[in-house]
Amino acid sequence: MAGPAGLALCGHELVVRGGSRLLATSTSSSDDDSLFIYDCSAAEKEAREHKGEDAQPAGEGSDTALAAAFSTSGSYFALTDDSKRLILFRTKPWQCLSVRTVVRRCTALTFTASEEKVLVADKSGDVYSFSVLEPHGSGKLELGHLSMLLDVSRYPSRLLLGSGSEVTRAGQSHSSPAHPLPLSTCRFVSRIFVVPDHPELLLSSSGDRTLRLWQYRSGRELHCCHLPSLQEPAEPWSNKRFAASRITYWRQEDCVALLCDGLPVVCLFQLDVPRRQLVYQQQLTFQHRVWDAAFEEARGLWVLQDCREAPLVLCRPVGGQWQSLPESAVSKRVCAHLRENWAMLEGSAGTDSGFSSLYKATCDNMTTYLKKKEERLQQQLEKKRRRGPPRGSNGQTKKMKAGRAPRSCSS
């Protein structure tokens, strides 16, 4: 099972993952020889020695890395793989701290603000926490959810969970209630992003091909960008279904970059904070498929693409227009490392982030599911009445309230 390649940046630390391997290096000119390579398949022996929460051994998988993230300070890095392993690293210097098993294959992960825990979300909709301070400790169930989780983001004191057709706000505790935010989208929410320095603002993307800006606390929509309207009708992907696979932000310029799964384009927006709106700036088009993109505060936007000759491209605004920059000493060094280890990226060609299958899970399907669930509940209540309903103090049969009929999404 091959998965799409991924890129992560924090400070000067740059990580590229592909297949079962991770390559970490530095963009600092003073760290010319820094290179760390890790292969998840080498973690097999360690994973067998450390059981998961249910004392189950690691699952049989392909060792492909599925999700990864830096801690806020960049001191830690974590990834999960297809063999249901959570691997924790220290980054200064790079060192593997632990290999632990997770209950199910994961879709997203993040660190708490204190960097004391790693929070791991899976397809069943559960969120588990794993201690960073006790790197061999077992996972703890923190939150249960209704449907598959596609993304997880951190608010100062809460978690935001992106799933089917909603974003859920929850405390970082299994006992804390989870509350859906009223985000009106009838497609799955593919990515959510809390804007740094402006935590009252939330960005979300979904399978309806929109990028939306929300007021976090009230759930009020502030602005909506319909992505197909930004493309030329003649472009081959103008009528294609797609969802964002990455939302990344450049604090220096209040710039938002959006990468859509399977498309060779990156859309750039200016976040106008006073007016609470997104201003479309430019579309960067590439000749090769773009796997991932991330901002480095000191340099600009790094783009990871399916091109052995130039796997990483650095872009930034020049004279008011975004463009790719000529290769610098740093980009030449990083690209040389990737070319030497190109085998880790070859399996990513032609793969997507798994959103294509989710278009079947429309709101109509969810409405049908809830309707059938309601019918089953009614049948159970009817069976209880037939067996002999309980009597009230006045000798009259107690009436049982039927649940509310499910709402359907507006078209």
From TrEMBL:
PROSITE patterns: WD_REPEATS_2. GO terms for biological process: DNA damage response; RNA (guanine-N7)-methylation; tRNA modification. It comes from the Eukaryota. Residues 374-411 are annotated as: Disordered. It is found in: Nucleus. The keyword Nuclease does not apply. Coiled coil: none annotated. Keywords: Acetylation, Chromosome, DNA damage, Nucleus, Repeat, tRNA processing, WD repeat. WD repeats lie at residues 201-224. Gene3D superfamilies: YVTN repeat-like/Quinoprotein amine dehydrogenase. One of its GO terms (cellular component) is cytosol. This is tRNA (Guanine-N(7)-)-methyltransferase non-catalytic subunit WDR4. It comes from Neophocaena asiaeorientalis asiaeorientalis (Yangtze finless porpoise). The gene is WDR4.
